[in-house]
């Protein structure tokens, strides 16, 4: 017989996985809000840092579903995979932050134009006059002294830890405390 939802939701593994899911959703909604509502255009590295969230959100939802169904091994695998995605994402964000602070040059895919360079009857020269060049080494916005990539480092590390905690709680249901 299946456990009631209220019992499952009180388990530490479920709480950590749910925390990871809702935090990831909040972060990606904030990033999309800064872009579409706030008018901040993301650089190529910023867009790449969203991939971990786009992949992890449905996987975290699935892990919660498998936890609810009692299929622990699949939930553990999904949670570990999400933890590795967020850890890699933290590394990519550290790379961008280091470039922003001048510790190293940003070499791959770090500039782009925000406007299409052809089409619509506009010549290439006219398009280049109006195109804004996005540079990953220059943050458009600082919040409490950190760029959005800097905040992404912090959040990605927290999500890595949260996914690992959920996976370890899932692997050993006898664990009751943090």
Features:
178 residues; mainly alpha; two-stranded antiparallel sheet; 65% helix; 6% strand
Structure description:
With 178 residues, the chain is mainly α. It has a single domain, classed as Bromodomain-like (Up-down Bundle), CATH 1.20.1550. Helix content is 65%, strand content 6%. It contains six helices and four strands, in the order ααααβαβββα. It has helices at residues 5-9, 12-36, 44-69, 72-100, 124-130, 148-171; strands at residues 111-113, 133-135, 142-143, 146-147. The strands form two sheets. Strands 1-2 form a two-stranded antiparallel ribbon. It has a two-stranded antiparallel ribbon with strand order 3-4. Helix 2 (12-36) packs antiparallel against helix 6 (148-171) and helix 4 (72-100) packs antiparallel against helix 6. The radius of gyration is 20 Å and the shape is elongated. The mean pLDDT is 80.
Q: Give the overall average pLDDT.
A: 80
CATH architecture: Up-down Bundle
H-E order: HHHHEHEEEH
Which strand order does the major sheet show?
1-2
Class in CATH?
Mainly Alpha
> Count the strands?
4
The helix/strand class is: mainly alpha
Tally of structural domains? 1
Number of helices: 6
Dominant shape: elongated
């Amino acid at each position: 017989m299946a456990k009631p939802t209220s019992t499952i939701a009180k388990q530490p593994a479920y709480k950590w996985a749910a925390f990871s899911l809702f935090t990831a959703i909040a972060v990606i909604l904030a990033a999309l809000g800064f872009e579409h509502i706030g008018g901040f255009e993301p650089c190529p590295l910023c867009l790449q840092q969203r991939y971990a969230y786009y992949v992890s959100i449905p996987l975290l939802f699935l892990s919660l579903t498998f936890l609810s169904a009692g299929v622990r091994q699949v939930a553990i695998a999904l949670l570990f995979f999400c933890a590795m995605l967020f850890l890699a994402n933290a590394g990519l964000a550290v790379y961008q932050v280091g470039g922003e602070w001048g510790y190293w040059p940003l070499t791959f895919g770090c500039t782009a134009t925000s406007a299409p360079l052809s089409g619509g009857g506009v010549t290439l020269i006219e398009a280049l006059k109006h195109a804004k060049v996005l540079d990953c080494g220059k943050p458009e916005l600082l919040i409490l002294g950190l760029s959005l990539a800097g905040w992404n480092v912090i959040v990605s590390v927290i999500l890595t830890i949260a996914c690992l905690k959920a996976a370890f709680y899932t692997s050993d249901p006898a664990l009751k405390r943090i």
